[in-house]
Each structure stands twice: as C-alpha cells, then as structure tokens.
Amino acid sequence: MSIIRSNRIGGYPIFNTIGYSSAVYKRAADVRLQDQVPLGRGGRIGDGRGHRRGLPYRLCVTDLEHSRRFYSDGLGFQEVGQFEVGPEFGAVMEVEGALALTSVFLRRDGVSIELLGYRSPAVEGDGTRRKMTQLGLTHLSLLVQDVDAVAARLQSLGGSVLPATRLSAASGEFVYCLDPDGIRIELMRLSAGPVGG
Q1: What pTM was computed for the model?
Q2: In angstroms, rounded to a whole number, what is the distance separating the alpha carbons of residues 20 and 37?
C-alpha cells in the first residue's frame, strides 16, 4: 500500500494508507512493526463493540515449530495463544475433508500473526515466492534499525535473503527476505525516519 500522508501523535509518526486507518510505527529493539487496523462502522477503528485491534495476518506454514522459531527468535514476536481447530470450521475456512490444524497466535508491537499448521488436509504449494505483480497480499513490511543484521538472523533461522533486492538510497536501506515457506518480508531502515517524520 502507498503511504499517502503522515502526522504525529505522542511523538510517534502516524501514516494513513488507502483502505486502512492509521498505521502506528512503534519503537522496539531492532524491529518496528506497523499496526494497520481495518476501518469499522462509520469509519471508526474496530467493530463497534469495543474491539480496536486489527485481526492477525494468517500464514499457512509447512512446519509449525520451524515457523514459530523464525517469527519469535528472528523478529521478536511473542506467543499469545494456541488453539486446535477441527472439522467444525471446515465450511467457514472452505476446506474440504477432515480438517485438523494447530493455530498459533504471535504478537509484537500491536501486530498479530496467526500461524496455521495443518495436519489434515496437507498444505498446498511449493513455497515459491509470489511475484510482486500477482494479485493479493504481496509481502509483510518491517522497519528495522539494521537491515543486514536482521536479514542475517532471519537467514540463520531458515529464511532466505534476496541479495538482488538490496538497495541503499537517500531514503534508506531496503532488502527482501523470505520466511521458511517463501512468504516475502521487506526489511527497511528509513534515513530520516518514516516519511514526513
């Protein structure tokens, strides 16, 4: 999504993106994550019942424990819940046959990720990264203090770094990595802080 304007609230830059409410960049050791919350009723954040946090980005993974370590040890996410999901959710998830999976919720700086580890049916796909021009979610984007250090840590945990995407420019440093299942993650350090900051 393209950032279209920036303001400051409480010392933190606030970004508005098309189709989303404010994205707050929060301070952390070496990774800062965006908290993008879809707009609720009447253009307000949440669902009108007091739920103000965004729902998680849901990632289907081939090896739940490997992905849990990647996101926890590599990016500092903390586990906040784990649930077993059975056939009662088959229709709502549009999964045919016997459904059995473990769902692990991870959270960091207001951003949630849900890792979906299917036991049945088997996961589909070969982990080939999606093209940036393919419709749908293209990547996760993270602000970091040291692009190379975080990229090396992710690589040591089973991720991949895409060296051809490494860019140093007046606006900052950027590189794309892949998680163990080929999900693209953009690491960026902005020279002057976030746009408009």
Answers
A1: 0.71
A2: 6
